[in-house]
Automatic annotation (TrEMBL):
Catalyzed chemical reaction(s): tRNA(Ala) + L-alanine + ATP = L-alanyl-tRNA(Ala) + AMP + diphosphate
Domain Alanyl-transfer RNA synthetases family profile residue range list: 1-470
GO CC annotations, alphabetized: cytosol
Note accompanying the cofactor annotation: Binds 1 zinc ion per subunit.
Keywords: Aminoacyl-tRNA synthetase, ATP-binding, Cytoplasm, Ligase, Metal-binding, Nucleotide-binding, Protein biosynthesis, RNA-binding, tRNA-binding, Zinc
Entry's EC annotation: 6.1.1.7
Designated gene of the protein: alaS
Protein name: Alanine--tRNA ligase
Record family assignment: Belongs to the class-II aminoacyl-tRNA synthetase family.
Known role: Catalyzes the attachment of alanine to tRNA(Ala) in a two-step reaction: alanine is first activated by ATP to form Ala-AMP and then transferred to the acceptor end of tRNA(Ala). Also edits incorrectly charged Ser-tRNA(Ala) and Gly-tRNA(Ala) via its editing domain.
UniProt lineage: Bacteria, Bacillati, Bacillota, Clostridia, Eubacteriales
Whole sequence portion shown: 1 to 470 of 872
GO-annotated biological processes: alanyl-tRNA aminoacylation
Required cofactor names: Zn(2+)
Domain remark in the UniProt entry: Consists of three domains; the N-terminal catalytic domain, the editing domain and the C-terminal C-Ala domain. The editing domain removes incorrectly charged amino acids, while the C-Ala domain, along with tRNA(Ala), serves as a bridge to cooperatively bring together the editing and aminoacylation centers thus stimulating deacylation of misacylated tRNAs.
GO molecular function: alanine-tRNA ligase activity; aminoacyl-tRNA deacylase activity; ATP binding; catalytic activity, acting on a protein; transferase activity; tRNA binding; zinc ion binding
Length: 470
């Protein structure tokens, strides 16, 4: 089943159950400084859940563009290593705003999976939050799930929140068992390991609370439902492929990377560069299409980190010239029907990617030589000092995660505390220098009202490479 068909079936099913179809909101959340990127379908409904905003409908369904890089939900480091994580993905979600609650949420999810998509109930497992007896009973009663297929889980996995504050609640997750051939060990199983055999596909959040700045939970005016299913994950299962990267949503990108690099894709660990590049180019294309620009702070810096990470992985495939922009039309071919915004600015997006890649390539080769030599001086299993990673960041524009990736390939870890300390020290130095300059500006030759602030601040004081988002 093609992914376009899965999107459509999802929307159709929930519309037939009285849900209002709502388009995806942007990746950059509107007027929400607490959140770097939209990381779930519920983000655009946050105020509705909080009771601060009302809509003309109490049930909604959407296919939402999501980004999980930076902020509370950050999957950047996972990308390329697991079969199931990207930074950019699409989330299929149904929502109830004080309308139905656990019973119907469970009923709808089960019916959609087993009847509409035709999944065999025997491959499905579910989890419930450790105190949620109600959900435990309902899975048996409404969906006929056998108790041995229901696993109790703790707060880390089964209590969902969007960020440090906001709507939250216990959750139940649905998993598919892809079969013993995917087992990581003899003890592999749901709740016992985090491998790709039993894969989470859908999270049903029973939204009951709002968490405030002090971590205090207060009940929401009306309990609600928020669900999210990863399109790429369910597509992988339905298309009978081994990972999200083999679906019709990502595999054409990998194929194009193969074509450009003349290297064959290895679906195992060796194929990580292909997977990273395929994911990252989608993320960058969507962010640029929304008007995010490369910069040294906030979202623009996250995007810069993503691009630099892709470029570094490109080196492993032999790309010693800019190549990422050549993938943008492939993103357009795959995603343009569902998201026309990636087609509208296609040539401009390509140009911005090319410029940014060229800019990084000015320091890339020399930075890589320094990095290689530093890594060679550390034995396998050893630690690269934080100051060295900071030097690479400061002088060559190597984001920390890029250095961490390269180190990891040699079994070396990076001292992140030392990196942070070096960063802090750098900032202190910059601050002291700024104060000295400001003192100098008090000199008597200045006219009493002469204003020098903007020039001083913008042209000297904040060296562009010195900003960092952890
Ligand atoms: P996991 O435990 O596998 O990291 P999660 O519990 O963090 O997933 P949720 O926050 O519950 O994920 O998001 C709802 C659904 O979105 C998941 O069940 C999954 O299908 C999908 N999803 C989450 N993160 C990603 C990702 N990085 N890439 C692709 N799909 C994802
Ligand atoms: Mg996760
Ligand atoms: Mg999970
Ligand atoms: Mg989950």
């Amino acid at each position: 089943m093609r992914s376009a068909e899965i999107r459509q079936k999802f929307l159709d099913y929930f519309v037939s159950q009285g849900h209002h179809k709502v388009p995806s909101s942007p990746l950059v959340p509107a007027q929400d400084p607490t959140l770097l990127f939209t990381n779930a379908g519920m983000v655009q409904f946050k105020d509705v859940f909080l009771g601060n905003e009302s809509r003309s409908y109490s049930r909604a369904v959407s296919v939402q563009k999501c980004m999980r890089a930076g902020g509370k939900h950050n999957d950047l480091d996972q990308v390329g290593k697991t079969a199931r994580h990207q930074t950019f993905f699409e989330m299929l979600g149904n929502f109830s705003f004080g309308d139905y609650f656990k019973r119907d949420a469970i009923r709808f999810a089960w019916q959609f999976l087993t009847e509409v998509l035709g999944l065999d109930p025997e491959i499905l497992w579910v989890t419930v939050f450790e105190t949620d007896d109600e959900a435990y009973e309902l899975w048996q009663e409404v969906a006929g799930v056998r108790p041995e297929r229901i696993v109790w889980m703790g707060e880390k996995d089964n209590f969902w929140s969007m960020g440090d504050t906001g709507p939250c609640g216990p959750s139940s997750e649905i998993f598919v068992d892809r079969g013993p051939e995917y087992a990581c060990s003899d003890h592999c199983g749901l709740g016992l390991c985090d491998c790709d055999r039993i894969q989470e596909i859908w999270n049903l959040v029973f939204m009951q609370y709002n968490r405030d700045e002090n971590g205090i939970l207060t009940p929401l005016p009306k309990p609600s439902i928020d669900t999210g299913m990863g399109l790429e994950r369910i597509a992988a299962y339905l298309q009978g492929v081994n990972s999200n990267f083999d679906t019709d949503l990502l595999r054409p990108l990998i194929r194009h990377v193969e074509h450009l690099s003349h290297v064959n894709y290895d679906p195992g660990p060796g194929g990580m560069p292909f997977r990273v590049i395929a994911d990252h180019i989608r993320a960058i294309t969507f962010l640029l299409a929304e008007g995010v620009s490369f910069s040294n702070s906030d979202r623009g810096y996250v995007m810069r980190r993503i691009l630099r990470r892709a470029v570094r992985f490109g080196l492993l495939l032999g790309f010693h010239r800019p190549f990422l922009h050549e993938l943008v039309p492939v993103v357009g071919e795959i995603m343009g029907d569902a998201y026309p915004e990636v087609l509208v600015g296609e040539s401009l997006i390509q140009q911005m990617i090319l410029d940014e890649e060229e800019r990084f390539r000015v320091t890339l080769d020399s930075g890589m030589k320094v990095l290689e030599s530093k890594l060679q001086s550390v034995p396998e299993g050893g630690v690269l000092p934080g100051e060295e990673a900071f030097l690479l960041y400061d002088t060559y524009g190597f984001p920390l995660d890029l250095t961490v990736d390269a180190a990891e390939e040699r079994g070396i870890t990076v001292d992140q505390t030392g990196f942070d300390a070096a960063m802090k020290e750098q900032r202190e130095r910059a601050r002291r220098a700024r104060n000295r300059r400001q003192d100098a500006e008090q000199l008597p030759h200045l006219q009493p009202n002469e204003f020098v602030g903007y020039h001083q601040l913008t042209s000297h004081d904040v060296p562009v490479t010195h900003l960092y988002i952890g």
